[in-house]
Model the fold of this input.
Amino acid sequence: AQRVTQPEKLLSVFKGAPVELKCNYSYSGSPELFWYVQYSRQRLQLLLRHISRESIKGFTADLNKGETSFHLKKPFAQEEDSAMYYCALAPYNFNKFYFGSGTKLNVKP
Amino acid sequence: EAGVAQSPRYKIIEKRQSVAFWCNPISGHATLYWYQQILGQGPKLLIQFQNNGVVDDSQLPKDRFSAERLKGVDSTLKIQPAKLEDSAVYLCASSLPRTGNTGELFFGEGSRLTVL
Done:
């Protein structure tokens, strides 16, 4: 069965420190992976997707098929990065999305 | 471009009462989703429409929840009768048709339901 696991409910780091939000998945096939973000008082929105191989707001994520992980990383956290982050999985045709339980990132000044 | 619109933003009802939520997706988005997000959890898919047809409603508690998408545009989600465990944020999302879909879901602001 498909599952997305985000082991950390809360992650607190100081401004300028590196940050890594963990995401592990289980899926029988080759899924597409995404990170969605929800800033305070804003709607849930796409941050980045694996298929685009992009870096958004300094964040990157590498798909490790061997470890079935898709961790989100940023070398130097900023206070404006404080938000809820959700890892999501979809089959190749994007016909269904599964979300993790989310990690709250708190970047302290 | 207007985003996904939802109403009401907040609703407080007593158990066994009924409630309805409305969603207007982004123009041209054929796929519409209703998610339930309980506090401390990630969004859980309740029902997915492709135009006005149901693609997946396997997680919808059909004894109390119903949803429709008339004319393939707006959608309503109804709960009747509500239970305490239905307290959650109900998120509507839409996406492009499959051929143009890059995997991005566009979410509304959500409707927060409190059942007392």
Summary: Chain B is about 0% helix and 45% strand. The interface with chain A takes residues 3-4, 33, 35, 40-45, 48, 55-56, 91, 93, 95, 98, 101-110 of chain B (CB under 8 Å).
